[in-house]
Amino acid sequence: MSMTMAAKQARGKKQNDVIFAASSAAQSDIKLNGKDHVVNGTVGSILDEDGQIVFLQSVKEEYLHLPNNEYIAYAPIAGLPEYLSAVYKACFEDAKPDAYIDAVATAGGTGGIHHLVHNYTALGDTVLTADWYWGNYKTICKDSGRILSTFTLLTDTNEFNIDSFKEEVMHLSKEQENLLILLNTPGNNPTGFSISDTSWNEILAFLSSLVASTTTKIILGVDVAYLDYAGEKHAVRQFFKKFSQLPKEILTVICYSVSKGFTMYGQRLGAMIGISSNQDVIDEFHEINAITSRATWSNLCRPAQRTIANLVSDDKKFAAYEEEREAYNSLIHERAAIFVEEAKSCGLPLLPYKGGFFLTIPTTQSTKICDALKEKHIYVIPLVKGIRVAACSIPKKQMKGLALSIYETMKELHSL
């Protein structure tokens, strides 16, 4: 046995990063054969039609012309007040809930997920999410001594599976005092699925009934990382109003990220926005999460906060930013539409895409299929239950014919 210095709970930590491995293989192939001959569907950032990573010009101009002190000085632990005000506007637009609301800056949307697990569940507790989820949810739970459990996201007709959701919530509510539920919508990673208004009504009615008849407290974490690319900006935000005046035993927390909407992935900035009908709950929300921030990363990137504060508070700049962002939202949806239409034509199975960066092909043989696709210079991500295709980064010219190529490969492997 090899020697270890790690504490018992930290021993054996290892991660097989399939996304990094696939991306590295794609980059090596591009160096050998040129980018026009390689389909790189591994990148989770917006690339333009020439394959270059997008930095919105409106954001770039603001970021590069800040005064020196804004690049150098610390930011407050909870975030610049002007930044947090900007977050409310950028996140909610005209759909701000009627409730007590507060926000704390976080390291991307990931930081908000971390704080929810750390502060609203106990050691050994189970966190609930859908069976199609971002893999880092499991990493965060496991690293924090929690367990991630899932409900079935979709019915056979590709609707939100409210029955499975209710069953799992009821089971866990009997086992623990607090139940943290993580829902990644709109534009779920990896499927592109979004919860409908009707399903939201069912979810919230059920949870409200549950807390009225039991001692369970519900923390509803809504990961909106792909909000700005999930559809028309006002339409995709209307569900926020549904969090108005919920029972005090339900705390809703929006995990908001500036990585995608403002194309500032590496700045590691976001916010967690607490929504409750009870002022005490929101006061506590601010205090405990700010302290956890202090204990985790101290404070966050000031220049990125100031950039967003300046952009959003200036009506002219904000309008220019939204126009620019909307152009890329449209581009991603155009790319996805090409793939969806071709998948339908050739019979390639596909989960329902409503928006966001990714589409997903359901299969239990993803590794074998992705390995075979590499031989055709096509690089996509193998998941436990499917194959993820990045509409955010594959140019339209390479989207054409891609669904058919994947279909033919699956047929060759008898994997349909």
Automatic annotation (TrEMBL):
Belongs to the class-I pyridoxal-phosphate-dependent aminotransferase family. InterPro entries: Aminotransferase_I/II_large, Asp_trans, PyrdxlP-dep_Trfase, PyrdxlP-dep_Trfase_major, PyrdxlP-dep_Trfase_small. One of its GO terms (biological process) is amino acid metabolic process. Pfam families: Aminotran_1_2 (PF00155). Gene3D superfamilies: Aspartate Aminotransferase, domain 1 (3.90.1150.10), Type I PLP-dependent aspartate aminotransferase-like (Major domain) (3.40.640.10). It comes from Veillonella montpellierensis DNF00314. Residues 42-403 form the Aminotransferase class I/classII large domain. One of its GO terms (molecular function) is pyridoxal phosphate binding. It comes from the Bacteria. Homodimer. Keywords: Aminotransferase, Pyridoxal phosphate, Transferase. Its cofactor is pyridoxal 5'-phosphate. This is Aminotransferase.
